[in-house]
Amino acid sequence: MVLLDSPRRRYLYLGLALRLVLILFGLYQDAHLAVPYTDIDYSVFQDGARHLVHGCPLHAAVPPHMEPMETLNEFLEPPLAPVHGCAQGWLALGARYILQHEDILTARSRGRQAAEIARKDLGEEATLSLIEPNIVETTLLPVSLAILKPILKPLAAMGNPYARPTYRYTPLLAVLMAPGAWIGGAFEKVWGKLLFVAGEILAALLMWDLARFRRPAAKRQPTSTSRLALLGDVTHAVGILWLLNPFPAQIATRGSCEALVVSLVLAFASAAVRIVEGEASFEAGLITSEDRPEQASNDSNDPSINTAKPAEGKPTPQSTAPPPPGLGLLPTLPLPLLAAPVLLALAAHLKLYPIIYGLPLLASLLPHSRRRWLDALGFSASASYAFLGLSGFAWLVWGQPYLQESLLYHVGRVDHRHNFSPYFFPLYLLHTPAQDGWLPALAGGGVWAGEAASRLGAFLPQLAVVAWIGVRVGKKDLIAAMAAQTMAFVVWNKVSTSQYFIWYIAFLPILLPSLRFSSPLVGWASLLVWVATQALWLSQAYLLEFEGQDVFVRVWAAGLVYVVGNAWVLERCLDAWARGRRDAREQEQRDREKAVAGKEVDREKAVTAAEASASSRPASE
């Protein structure tokens, strides 16, 4: 099927138009209404980009008419630059040092006489002028500096996005936002939102691409009345649930970067599915049925596939079927194997949570054969090196602030502001000064509150559920495992907000056509519970935030209801997924039996025709 047929193009145009209208409406609301449309996070992104572009001018980072900087602190914080305005990594420091000492490094390239003249400027290094210059000093060093200068100048003038308080994202996000900060004006207000909208459009294309690996099974399944007819087709499912859905549209147009994360996750899933399906292997590039035990067993039951062993002494007949189209850049390193670990590393660099997707991919590879162990090992090593390489580069440019704000902060994050997670209340009790009354008295060191608010202890139930789903479901269905993992991660996370729901909603259009609830009532009940638990929490949060009522306990109780309700929804969805797989296998078996019966009928007809022809031949002679 063509990836972009007419209905899909129509959905793309309508989805893009919806988002552009929301961007224009947001500009109007921000300018004329009391409640802004743009999310506060977008302001953080913009400020980080401004610090990156304007926070460390080159004339301040490398002053042309000042005494040379000598101490490490001077290179970290140039005297003429704003406080914490310059990048603090070793690459940035080295670039400033080289540019400041360019005259000293190249003085001897002008010969002995020039070095003697520069004796006063060089100070102690002037003694080197008595030594005959060599080719390194006269040629290689000046040429190298001339080549590297276009790179050294941006590095030396690289700003520090972490100079903006609460900027706790990857610096690459500030780099993506930099064109808006550099141009300024109205373009700065919309550039990031257009970038996020492009991420949502790309995500829709990737959903349709992933559906190609699930569509044949979905088409063979019987039609159910538990869902709308349009949503049974992935073209309309992606169009209605993603492109025309106002929830993801307003998340992107308000300035949240979740669409970039989702697009990277889906791109990784697209490459990972190709690895699991056998289109890519570190050893041979293509996986045969011998490497997939269940596939081999299915093939042995299919009479259309000749599995008979050749007679002894005769050569084994070679298949004349053309091989699947290759995606490889190299014979043994196809494109999915090169792209999947890099895409996963990029997604985890942007947001840490996608690192959980490595587990279901490994679980889907390891049970099949020894050859797939090589694929699993190669993927693990490549993804680890890619993530460490990205993180190492960011650390070399931006230094310790990157490690502290982008990585370590999220491991021990303490957010006591109210959110869907019930963890917020114990954290609030721990960080509120004790006062009279029973509620603040718990802040005096209650054991249960201290245990619940432990920075690392909160990860234990979350990681246990996520790991169990990744291994158990990942062996059977990679995409379903990723979707279930994401929902479990969001529900049990220490901090849970509405924008995080986008992480697992992005999998819904791909999986919905293959879900089979036990009854239509269960499907509608799951949707109702998902909406009602959020509505209950939002009603109490409104009283707390806008009415100023003391309803902390009620907000916390609503958070508990949210966790229990969403856990029930997840369990029902996993049950519907299992039913869908069972229906698909039964339908495949029926199709196989029908094909066998059809071939038997054709064979009997051929035999009857041959006998009739043989019996009529003597009569004609």
Provide a descriptive summary of the structure in words.
It is a multi-pass membrane protein. It is an enzyme of class 2 (transferase). Mannosyltransferase involved in glycosylphosphatidylinositol-anchor biosynthesis. Transfers the first alpha-1,4-mannose to GlcN-acyl-PI during GPI precursor assembly. Required for cell wall integrity. It is found in: Endoplasmic reticulum membrane. There is one protein chain. The chain has helices spanning about 5-30, 40-55, 60, 70-75, 90-100, 100-105, 110-115, 120, 135-155, 170-185, 185-210, 215-220, 235-245, 245-255, 260-275, 295-300, 335-350, 360-365, 370-400, 400-410, 425-430, 440, 445-450, 460-475, 480-490, 500-505, 510, 520-545, 550-620, and strands at about 330, 335. The protein is mainly α and about 625 residues long. Strands 1-2 form a two-stranded antiparallel sheet. Helix 1 crosses helix 14 and helix 24 (about 460-475) runs antiparallel to helix 25 (about 480-490). The radius of gyration is 31 Å and the shape is globular. The protein starts with 5 loop residues before the first helix and ends with a helix. Residues about 215-225, about 285-330 and about 435-450 have low confidence and may be disordered.
